[in-house]
Design a protein that fits this description.
Layout: H1 4-21, E1 24-25, H2 26-39, H3 53-56, H4 58-74, E2 82-86, H5 92-102, E3 109-113, H6 117-126, E4 131-133, E5 145-150, E6 159-164, E7 167-176, E8 179-188, E9 209-212, H7 214-230, E10 232-241, E11 251-254, E12 257-259, E13 269-271, E14 274-275, H8 276-285, E15 289-295, H9 296-302, H10 305-315, H11 320-331, H12 333-339, E16 340-346
Parallel strand pairs: 2-3, 2-5, 3-4, 5-10, 10-14
Antiparallel strand pairs: 1-7, 6-7, 6-9, 7-8, 10-16, 11-12, 11-13, 15-16
The structure holds S-adenosyl-L-homocysteine.
Length: about 350
């Protein structure tokens, strides 16, 4: 856990910055806060702040491994393939996926894009053969990439624009009455909104908020370019929406509870819903194949999660109940099944993926 004095230091750093130079952008605030948040701790699990799909059940990572192996086989089993995971957390998804791929004769080299020193140490225990990268730029330049990211894009900073009488302005973070809070910036930001891509914003009332993630779009643009140049496929899984919308989705979670995103910078996980529509456009604009965006529940059912749960329960009847309840948690509408989406991308000459 982060020591309280460190959190005070981050609030104090923001305060000093704002008092000297004026409000900072929300993207700046979110980026710095999450860098601090992830740097020093493992936030996953019952004792941590939140739980992710691979930590709920091994079936999640296994089915992803199966999907990648199927793609690779249908692409003609190319050599020198690399498994790339973005923000691999505890390395659990990678372990389960690599085990499933090995059953089909697929044994790729392993590359992790990870910013957290604390999580890197845990990943090293789980997947000792991995190579680590600070960002995508240093990934191998040759050989197809099998890319996976679960709950990675939602942690990247968002920018928010707010409609005012005078035009679009950026939503910033200021310091007032002894605390950090959102304020409206003074710079005209109309040019940051590509009006031709957002006809839905015409005539929206003052106060309307539009959220974008230039950081997430840049990651997807880079993935698309790599897939085109090197071959391969990508699965990006996150909670989010797949048609243009308005409003803030910024949230902070600590110990499985929602908290004020401005109260504890660096001590709570800051996320925003992923705009799959915008990310699909980013990939398509580069000429990448878009396999689709589907709800996680449908994707996992299409890949046979129910049969897999049956098989696991038969081998370990004492865990049957836990296995079936994990399956429900991952796929049910009211749980992770509908809010979470899976975006599939592939190189132009790679096959159609199962499940979409
Ligand atoms: N995929 C894992 C963990 C999700 S938590 C799981 O499903 O369990 C988010 C992960 O992304 C963590 O590993 C975190 O350290 C990493 N991360 C967040 N922002 C990052 C950034 N800007 N650069 C690199 N890694 C980042």
């Amino acid at each position: 856990m982060t020591a309280p004095h460190e959190t005070e230091a981050l609030t104090a750093i923001f305060r000093r910055l704002i008092e000297n130079y004026g409000p900072i952008s929300l993207a700046h605030y979110m980026g710095e806060s999450n860098a601090r948040y992830y740097a020093g701790k493992d936030p996953l699990g019952e004792d941590g702040d939140f739980i992710t799909a691979p930590e709920i059940s091994q079936m999640f990572g296994e089915l992803i491994g199966l999907w990648l192996a199927d793609m690779w086989i249908n692409a003609g089993r190319p050599e020198e393939v690399h498994y790339v995971e973005l923000g691999p957390g505890r390395g659990t998804l990678a372990q389960d996926a690599l085990r499933a791929m090995r059953r089909y004769g697929l044994e790729p080299s392993v590359h992790f894009v990870e910013g957290s020193t604390a999580l890197k140490a845990i990943q090293l225990e789980a997947v000792p053969q991995a190579y680590w990268h600070d960002d995508l730029s240093t990934l191998p330049m040759y050989g197809p990439l099998l890319i996976v990211g679960n709950e990675f894009l939602d942690a990247l900073p968002v920018r928010q624009l707010v409609r005012t009488e005078a035009g679009w302005r950026e939503r910033m973070v200021g310091w007032q009455d002894g605390r950090l809070l959102p304020v409206i910036g003074t710079m005209p930001m109309d040019a940051a909104l590509r009006a031709e891509q957002r006809p839905d914003l015409r005539g929206t009332p003052d106060g309307t908020i539009v959220e974008t993630s230039p950081a997430a779009a840049a990651v997807v643009y880079e993935i698309a370019g790599r897939l085109i140049d090197q071959g391969g496929a990508a699965l990006l899984i996150d909670y989010g929406y797949d048609e243009p919308r308005t409003g803030s989705t910024l949230q902070a979670v600590r110990a499985h509870m929602k908290v004020d995103p401005f109260a504890l910078p660096g001590e709570a996980d800051l996320t925003a819903h992923v705009d799959f529509h915008a990310l699909s456009n980013a990939a398509l604009s580069r000429g990448c194949r878009w396999l689709g965006t589907v709800e996680q529940g449908r994707f996992l059912r299409n890949l046979g999660i129910e049969a897999r749960a049956e098989a696991l329960a038969k081998v370990a009847p004492e865990h049957a109940e836990a296995i079936h309840s994990a399956c429900t948690r991952l796929t049910a509408e009211g749980q992770m099944g509908a809010l979470f989406k899976v975006l599939g991308l592939a190189a132009p000459n790679w096959p159609d993926g199962a499940g979409f």
